[in-house]
Amino acid sequence: MSAAYKPIYTPEEYLAVERLAAERSEYIAGETFNMAGGTYRHSLISGNAFSELRTALRPHGCRTHASDLKIFIPAADAFVYPDVVVVCGQADFFDQRKDVVLNPRVVVEVLSPSTESYDRGTNSELYRSISSLRDLLLISQDEMRVTHHHRTADGWEMREFYGPTAIVTLAASQVSLELAPLYQDVDLRDDEDSR
Known about the structure:
By secondary structure, this protein is an alpha+beta fold. The chain has 5 helices and 13 strands. It is globular and about 45 Å long.
């Protein structure tokens, strides 16, 4: 049995197709990957993260974007849709369409059981290769837990934060975020199958 043919696209071909597509897909080194839909819990946490970051970082000249904005990762020739993206100062774009940003300062991914291993491994490494990135937040859906990767003068450091009173301080602006608001209206006791 032969393997199914999977077309290889150039970045320009991917963008031309993606901009007209009804469903979103990500692009890594010529291959496209369909994105699964989110769940109620994922949506709440993503929305809370967007709201908290927008409020905290706006006074610092930063703009917070929801999951419709793509970012380009040069080291992997990849276009991805993080759950939340923060750009500080002037945004740099891939092309004139202004739907792909090149200089994210903060990226947030809300983890799902089906993607958690990838998001904590390969995806995290890809994000950390972006020279403008200062903070990567990986937010659990199953417990009050945030993994914070932040850039230092010596490279990247990672810390885990647990519980409602835990506070994450962003390297991007020294703004602090408490975990409880990230989980507002989220019932962690609910046995939701959060894919």
